[in-house]
Amino acid sequence: MIDYFKGTLSYKTLNTAVVEVAGIGYSISITADTFNKLPTDGNQVKLYIIESTGMYGGVISYYGFLTREERDMFVLIKDEVPSTGAKKAMEYLDKISKSFADFQAAVMKRDVSMLSGIFGFTKKTAEKLVAALKDKIANVTVKDSAKWSNIDAGSSSSEAVAALVALGYKETDAREVVNKVANENKDFSVEQIITEALKKL
Questions:
Q1: Are 35 and 41 in contact (CB under 8 A)?
Q2: CA-CA distance, 114 to 109, in Å (whole number)?
Q3: C-alpha to C-alpha distance for 23 and 28, rounded to whole angstroms
Q4: Would you say 174 and 161 are in contact if contact means Cβ atoms under 8 Å apart?
Q5: Predicted pLDDT of residue 136
Q6: pLDDT of res. 129
Q7: Which of 67, 45, 47 is nearest to 140 (CA)?
Q8: Beta strand spans in 30-161 (E)
């Protein structure tokens, strides 16, 4: 089994990286987030790999990740979430890459509103992720820091941030403004927090 490829990045597209290793160019499926983090063509790269063989002994496909933690999250989603193959797991992983720590926390806290608002999952998919991963996701090591650790799951602030992100605002900007509004107006409802936050964004 291949653990990783380390070689020269020949070229990349939004969903694919071609890495040359010992004179052979390997086509590797990647997320859009990985695409944005890869160096320019001709530079050295290292991608952790998952191999997937098509049905009935078909072509081997490679899926690449910048860290082992990303790969572990991909495997967990692919193996544990019902009706989720490798391609769908990559789509989910791209959304999760906004903050692995917050995704993990949201699943453990069963915070469907954060999964929908911050990460862009439909409510149905968010509920499916929670049901499938809530008892297993703690076993995945996550190294990044939570961005919303001071917002309680299911709170008015959490729902307000999710709503603002759904409207197109950056999550970091929404979080900062919502925190300020909520701290200054502790009795505000979700709607009041959103209304006041929109004045400041």
A1: no
A2: 10
A3: 16
A4: yes
A5: 94
A6: 97
A7: 67
A8: 44-53, 60-65
The two three-digit tokens of residue 103, written as one number: 């995704």
Q: Which two tokens stand for residue 178?
A: 């919502």
Which letter does DSSP use for residue 48 in this model?
Answer: E
Q: How far apart are CA 97 and CA 32, in angstroms?
A: 10
Asked whether the beta carbons of 50 and 75 are under 8 A apart, the reply is yes
**Where do we find the tokens 């999250």?**
73
Q: Which of 190, 76, 86 lies closest to 135, judged by CA?
A: 76
Strands 60-65 and 24-29: what pairing?
A: parallel
The whole-angstrom separation of Cα 69 and Cα 141 is 6
pTM of this prediction?
0.75
Which regions in the chain score pLDDT beneath 70? 54-57, 147-155
Provide the token pair at 30.
């990647």
Query: Left (φ > 0), alpha (ψ -120 to 50) or beta: where does 168 sit?
Result: left
Burial of 28 (0-12, 13-18, 19+ CB in 10 A): buried
* Cα atoms in the 13 Å half-sphere on the side-chain side of 114: 29
What pLDDT score does 170 carry?
81
- Which H or E element spans position 171? helix 171-184
Burial of 176 from C-beta contacts in 10 A (0-12 / 13-18 / 19+):
middle
pLDDT of residue 157: 80
